[in-house]
Amino acid sequence: MNQPVPINTGRPSDDHGGSGLTDLMQKVAHGDKEAFSDLYDALAPMVFGIVVKVVRDRAQSEEVSQEVMIDLWRQAARYRPEAGSVTTWAATIAHRRAVDRVRSAQASAHREHAQAAREHTIAFDEVAEQVETRLDSEQVRRCMRGLTEVQRQAVTLAYYQGLTYREVAEALRTPLPTIKTRMRDGLIRLRDCMGVTT
Q1: Does this model's pTM top 0.85?
Q2: Region (Disordered) spans which residues (predicted)?
Q3: Domain total of the chain
Q4: Which domain holds residue 143?
């Protein structure tokens, strides 16, 4: 089982009935690779069908289906016929794996969003109090003049007009990572110029 077998998304094999799959599973539990190959052919299409309905992304569904089939190989000895059919057992594992993948993807997206929000807040909190108390002061104007044109544009749009990084990127027609870099560098220069300590 070093090399994963490509996911077969064709029609399931009709060569094995319920008892046939149980026999195959018992052989797989004893390390029979040929039996696993037959089990794979019989179950992979059903597994993929379950996974793709939950995950909805074909490439990810193929990955998850592969993981399910590897689970069946590794956990074959844990299968108990009295608890249900092989098909039901495989379907349960497939559904659980698919739901885990969706939750993981959602959690990752949430973390990225939260991190972006934190970066935005932290960057401005470093200078916000000082800038707010000296908005019209000569020092702020002088420090703003010390920024490059692109930094000044980004900081002005984000801080003075309250735009998010993404909105600044859209307004300046510039990639988001570039805007983040300009903002970070600009705020560091402002902080240093104004003598703000962190």
Answers
A1: no
A2: 1-22
A3: 2
A4: 134-194
